[in-house]
Amino acid sequence: MKNIIQNINKAFDHRIRLGIMSVLMVNEYADFKTLKEVLGVTDGNLASHAKALENENYILVEKQFIGRKPNTRYIATKSGKQAFKEHIDALEKLIQGE
Question: What's the sign of the alpha-carbon dihedral 23, 35, 81, 66?
Answer without folding.
Answer: positive
